[in-house]
């Protein structure tokens, strides 16, 4: 039986101010280009930055690719997210174990590492650029874009 459910995708990192907002932006763009009807959001496992906009370096990186993420606001992952979303993607292994630890018994979301979407990069993490330099944000953008395009292509099938 075909799955007619609209996909709902949530990207999760630690602070929801660097990697997952960039993943959300890259996937919104990939989904739009593919003509996919999807729900998209991002969240953090931690609560330190709740209510804040993305890190200025993440905003600058998205802006270089023509995307304004200045209106995004950080929020923390909740149990309700496991019922609302069909797919939850962790940016790294610590995020993955924190996500799994919060999963309620009645959740429907599948949970995986984001780079599992990219052939040859299964099991890899998107490195945390927060304590590094600007170049780290470019690496993050390349990683999340590669994964977003692969995810959009898979959802189209
Ligand atoms: P993110 O990056 O998880 O990609 O949003 C971080 C943001 C904040 C912190 C660490 C990583 N922090 O320690 O405050």
Topology:
Elements: E1 8-13, H1 19-34, E2 39-44, H2 56-64, H3 79-84, E3 87-90, H4 93-102, E4 110-113, H5 134-156
Parallel strand pairs: 1-2, 1-3, 3-4
Helix pairs in contact: 1-2, 1-5, 2-5
The chain binds 4-nitrophenyl phosphate.
4-nitrophenyl phosphate binds at residues 13-19, 48, 128, 130.
**Average of the residue pLDDT scores:** 96
Spatial strand sequence of the major β-sheet: 2-1-3-4
Bound molecules: 4-nitrophenyl phosphate
Anisotropy-based shape? globular
- Domain count, please report it: 1
Number of helices: 5
Share of β-strand residues:
5-15%
Cα(first) to Cα(last) distance is: 14 Å
Helix content: 40-55%
Rg over CA atoms: 14 Å
CATH homologous superfamily heading: Response regulator
Q: What structural category arises from helix and sheet content?
A: alpha/beta
Could you give the count of β-strands? 4
Please summarize the sheet with the most strands: 4 strands, parallel
Task: Note poorly predicted spans.
Answer: none
Briefly, what CATH class?
A: Alpha Beta
CATH topology: Rossmann fold
What does this structure look like?
By secondary structure, this protein is α/β, with parallel strands linked by helices. The chain has a single domain, classed as Response regulator (Rossmann fold, 3-Layer(aba) Sandwich). 41% of the residues lie in helices and 13% in strands. The protein is built from 5 helices and 4 strands; from the N terminus they run E-H-E-H-H-E-H-E-H. A 4-stranded parallel β-sheet has the order 2-1-3-4. Helix 1 packs parallel to helix 5 (134-156) and helix 2 packs across helix 5 (134-156). It is globular. The structure holds 4-nitrophenyl phosphate.
């Amino acid at each position: 039986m075909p799955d007619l459910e609209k996909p709902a995708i949530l990207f999760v990192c630690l602070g929801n101010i660097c990697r997952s907002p960039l993943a959300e932006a890259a996937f919104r763009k990939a989904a739009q280009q593919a003509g996919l009807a999807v729900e998209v959001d991002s969240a953090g496992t931690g609560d330190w930055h709740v209510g804040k906009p993305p890190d200025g370096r993440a905003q600058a990186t998205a802006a270089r690719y023509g995307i304004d993420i200045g209106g995004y606001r950080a929020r923390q992952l909740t149990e309700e997210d496991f019922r609302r979303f069909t797919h939850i993607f962790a940016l790294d292994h610590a995020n993955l174990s924190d996500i799994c630890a919060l999963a309620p018994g009645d959740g429907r979301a599948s949970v995986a590492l984001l780079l599992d979407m990219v052939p040859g990069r299964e099991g890899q993490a998107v490195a945390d650029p927060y304590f590094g330099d600007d170049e780290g944000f470019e690496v993050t953008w390349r990683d999340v874009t590669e994964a977003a395009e692969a995810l959009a292509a898979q959802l189209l099938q």
